[in-house]
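Our consortium's second objective concerns turning raw sequence data into structural hypotheses that experimental partners can test. To show how far this objective has progressed, the report includes one record in full. It was chosen at random from the queue rather than selected for favorable results. The single chain below, 108 residues long, was entered without modification.
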Amino acid sequence: MLVVIANDLPPAVRGRMKLWFIEPRPNVFVSGVKDSVADTVVTYLNKSCPPESGLLIFQRINRSPGYKIWGIGDHTKQIIDIDGLQLIIEKYLPSKENTLYTAEQTHQ
């Protein structure tokens, strides 16, 4: 399975994507292609999309944790890796410890 979330795609790439994917929402593409085809699609997108396309690609893989996240171009979400587990940061909130530390610093 492959899920592609894009900021914007060139018309030629969007046309090719519709051969392999359904588009349940604008710029969100979902496909159940086989793993070997998924690798080909990721390579095609990497070569054909300018950085403004801002792609996040979620690919199912057969080893733990069961997925791989690719970020291509200027995507708006940050991908982090924690002990081999890839995650997407939706919103960064400073911890209370950091907030207290900052408050102590301002009183000195």
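The partners drew two points from this record. The chain has three helices and seven strands. Strands lie at 2-6, 22-25, 28-31, 55-60, 67-72, 78-82, 85-89. Both points have been shared with the crystallography group to help prioritize constructs.
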